[in-house]
Specification:
about 120 residues; mainly alpha; two-stranded antiparallel ribbon; 5 helices; about 85% helix
Length: about 120
């Protein structure tokens, strides 16, 4: 279960990061965040290839990419209450460091759990 949650968070992160790259300036700290999540994503995909059935892996990747894309599209279009945006992309950008830590922590837990069980 940790694998699927982490995979979903990784796809959401990269969808937000793609939009952030187009709209905002990139600092070295943000690039470091992207690098850390990129390494975690590669390690996570490697874990999926090794330990998850290929049909569950491919189906989950497909569903998570679609869900993350739709979520970010909804945020871009805006959720408005009385003419004011309720949640915008600027709010999503604030949570990128937290999302980075969650992805990193869950990736470490996933591999440590696999090593301890073996």
């Amino acid at each position: 279960m940790i694998f699927y949650v982490t995979l979903f968070f990784a796809f959401v992160y990269f969808k937000i990061a793609r939009v952030h790259k187009k709209e905002e300036r990139m600092s070295s700290l943000v690039l470091l965040q992207h690098f850390v999540v990129g390494i975690c994503a590669v390690v996570l995909l490697y874990y999926g290839v090794l330990y998850v059935s290929w049909y569950f892996f491919m189906l989950s990747v497909l569903l998570f990419v679609i869900a993350a894309s739709l979520m970010i599209t909804v945020i871009q279009l805006g959720i408005f209450v009385d003419g004011k945006p309720m949640f915008g992309l600027s709010s999503a950008y604030k949570y990128l460091p937290l999302l980075t830590l969650v992805i990193l922590f869950l990736s470490i837990v996933l591999w440590v759990n696999k090593i301890v069980v073996i």
